[in-house]
Amino acid sequence: MVEAARRKNGHLALTLKEVVAEGHFDDKLHSELRNFLRWFVASKIVATDVHLDNIVFDEVNNRLILIDGIGDKTLIPLRAWFPALNQMNKKRIAKNIYSQVAINFMSSTVKKKALMLLCFISCVALGIDLQDGVLFNWV
């Protein structure tokens, strides 16, 4: 299939890496990722270079799509000749993708929490009342 995966606003779809970094990774997308990885491992495609930048989220159809990394580009295409070897390689790739999503999700979440904590500490240190945004009333 040759067509561009799109967001609901018409722009090109975000990569899985961008979706996680922007904080759009939720339970629904986590379930979709697990389904995608199950399909990926069970499929007969030969995959070589699959990572978070070549999996995109099609918001219009609510699915993940592999956009690159397909095909054996070696001189002797062992994975194409031996399906068990190909499946073993895809299991390794799937585990790596799942781990990368988890690491990027945690990193993104920790950065947001740290920024909120830094803002809170700064406001308190400057004497700004966080409820109404003005300096503390010392009366």
What is the CATH-assigned architecture? Orthogonal Bundle
Q: Compute the number of strand runs.
A: 3
Question: What global shape is seen?
Answer: elongated
- How does the major sheet shape up? 3 strands, antiparallel
**Terminal-residue CA separation:** 70 Å
Radius of gyration: 22 Å
- Please identify the structural class as seen in this structure: mainly alpha
Give the key terms.
single chain; 139 residues; mainly alpha; Transferase(Phosphotransferase), domain 1; 4 helices; 3 strands; 7% strand
Question: What's the quick description here?
Answer:
With 139 residues, the chain is mainly α.
Explain this structure.
- The protein has 139 residues and is mainly α.
- It has a single domain, classed as Transferase(Phosphotransferase), domain 1.
- Helices cover 50% and strands 7% of the residues.
- It contains 4 helices and 3 strands, in the order E-H-H-E-E-H-H.
- The protein has helices at 16-21, 27-42, 78-81, 83-126, and strands spanning 14-15, 55-58, 63-66.
- A 3-stranded antiparallel beta sheet has the order 1-2-3.
- Strand 2 and strand 3 (63-66) form a beta hairpin.
- The longest helix has 44 residues, at 83-126.
- The radius of gyration is 22 Å and the shape is elongated.
- The model has no long low-confidence stretch (mean pLDDT 83).
